[in-house]
Amino acid sequence: MEREENKMGVLPIPRLILSMSLPIMLSMMVQALYNIVDSIFVARIAEDALSAVSLAFPVQNIMIAVGTGTGVGVNALLSKSLGEKNYELANKTANVALFLAAASSLVFMIFGLFFVEPYFRALTDIEVIVQYGIEYTSVVTVVSIGLMGAIMAERLLVSTGRTVYSMITQMSGAVANMILDPILIFGLLGFPKMGVTGAAVATVAGQLLSMALGLVFNLTANKDIRLDVRQMAPSAFVVKRIYYVGVPSIVMASIGSVMNFFMNRILLSFTSTATAVFGVYFKLQSFVFMPVFGMNNGVVPIVAYNYGARRRDRILETIRTATLYAVGIMAVGLLLFQIFPRPMLWLFDASPSMMEMGVRALRIISLSFLPAAYCIVVTSVCQALGKGLYGMYMSLIRQIAVLLPAAYVLSLFGKVDYVWFAFPIAELVCLAIATVFKRRALKLIDFEERDGVSSTERFQ
Length: 460
What we know:
By secondary structure, the chain is mainly α. It is 83% helix and 0% strand.
């Protein structure tokens, strides 16, 4: 029986992007909201608790980087396989993806058991921040199976165009987290008062719920793949293809953790309040960036599918439309950060010194939003086309070669406000690099269309 053509090959591009992306965008905005709510409640414990959770961000970011980076590789290979009608490879990719999620969670469990305390002591000698940090980070790393499983189950749904189910899984976990946060942190409804540990427990509980729902939806509603324990044994070919795209994505996202670690070291040379402001900024900016990342999660399988189907016209239209949408979203975010920084900081019970510093920080850093929109779209397109190294190079140059050195040099002038200007400087450099890499990626597509050989066939 002949399979029905997947919508990624036939729907008009603007409608397709919206249908693929809106559910993911909504769910990721809810995810961003519960991250913000997490910090709002933690800030009620103490500013040091907020600083500790902010210092934990690089570890959480690496966990997310491994999960989503592997997921990008899965997205690209699975969607491309479907576009080429290679259903056997698509099934094997889906099953190996779940094995990789379990293996990744084991690595982070080991880190949580043995390396959390050395990590925090390398950052600060403020004992109360160290203890808060150990409490929070130990839980989210040891029980990382929920995060890894949820990401991978969601990516399988996105890869096959079932973004509504993906939205349900993510939103369910996020809502559960928001409900549990005040209950477990402050000991409501008869539960013990757990403080910072309660915030971590609420987080992993939401992730476990998302994973469970994602697996159920893939087993019952995802007709493009078949999950089977017997197919989960890793295949060298599949693992290599996943990480050919996935490793650059993992490195690219992990670079953010390296940047965050050293940026916190620079900011701690001024005051711990600066690290709290930096942490609050990352929570707030996620509410702007997450919709763009959500849209690009929908764009990756569209580009990959049409790459496999040899539809260059649809790839180009997808890039143009996605760029327009991304810039529009970021423009709204820029206006909000410029006009309403004080109400944003009030949410986190900001002290007068934190308020004064934070208003200036939010207004300065948000100047980077518009060029960042274009860079994000180009990165996602390069990942979908199997050129993930381009995205990795962009991140390395932006965050390691430009942002950190600029932040350090600006810090030497003795005023923390100057450090924030490193962000727009870095994004402007990335804008120029992204333009060059996009042209190169599209030329490579022209070459592969002319020789008529699929990248999967070439690899084999």
